[in-house]
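User: My collaborator sent over this chain with a note saying "see what the structure looks like." That's all I know about it. Can you take a look?
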Amino acid sequence: MGFWSNLVAPITKPSITAQNAPMVVPDTQGLLTLTSGIGISRNEAMSVPAVARCRNLICGIISSMELTTELKATDEEVPNLPWLNQISKSAPNAVVLSWIVDALLFYGTAYLEVTEIYQDDNRPARFEFVSNNRVIAQLNHNSTFVDEYWVDSKSRPMSGIGSLVTIQLGGEGILANGARILRAAVDLEKAASIAAATPVPSGILKNNGADLGDKEVAGLLAAWKRSRQERSTAYLTSSLEYQPTAFSPKEMMMNEAQQYMATQIARLCNVPAYYISADMNNSMTYSNVQDERRQFVSLSLQPFISAIEQRFSMDDLTPNTQYVSFDMDSGFLRANPMERLNVIEKMLNLGLITVEQAMAMEELSPNGNN
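Assistant: Without extra context I'll predict from the sequence alone. Here is the result:
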């Protein structure tokens, strides 16, 4: 079974937010429909450009970071367990981590299915990502603990091969917390699409002459509709008059509404508005871009990063003398060459590192070549 097949959802029941049993389940049970009946699916939410942009920013940056293992006592980096280098056999880590963060963003919980275990300690050795709408949790009679997980309507064990490892963000995802905002944004996109498909506002054809029969009226309306689809102008006889009954997109302030919704979605996803072009007064400059990136990681990405790091560092996955972390000094937060060299030079002068360690920091081989 390939990685993509794990994302196909044969059942449409929403997942229930829970950690590995026995853990307490929130009273809301992760349902994605509010009491007022307003609900939103992930696919609908992703049809809104602002949501897709926020999702791709958060998932793309985190999934590009490398996972490392360090000793708790000394913070010394040690070799990773094999599964940390490749979580799934069917996809690279960048893809699997992206879907994990995606599930945390939209649902608040991500699921990994154990596909292999180590024989010496029975710890998981490999995983496959499982989409949330394939998972159902069976609760106890008080609805406080998970008794059993079901995937594709099949019961799963609570440990060993086939069991589920859950990663929790510590709250509900945006599909539950932002259902009203996301539904409004989806409806606004639909309204804009309809307005683009029908540039002339909806209206009525008023007949100032003799009354027409039902067939004549149906034919006239069909001809009018066909004419408006095929050309930008139409001809009306002296007895016919077109009267608009709807506001134009300009009158409806649709552009302003879309900009407002983009700002609201940025707030919902905890992403700076200027990152999705929702803030038109941004004064971003090259000199402060690195500080802005650090702030974005600290305030927006850190909850996702911490959820993954701490779950991967738990005793059932990693030896209790070690912990897992993301390499924050590469990729998105990597400083420019001059800044890095200035830092390395000061560390060398203070005797904090050796020349060999400095070369390793710049990914240089001992002879100075890449």
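A starting point for your reply to your collaborator: Residues 51 and 265 are 7 Å apart (CA to CA).
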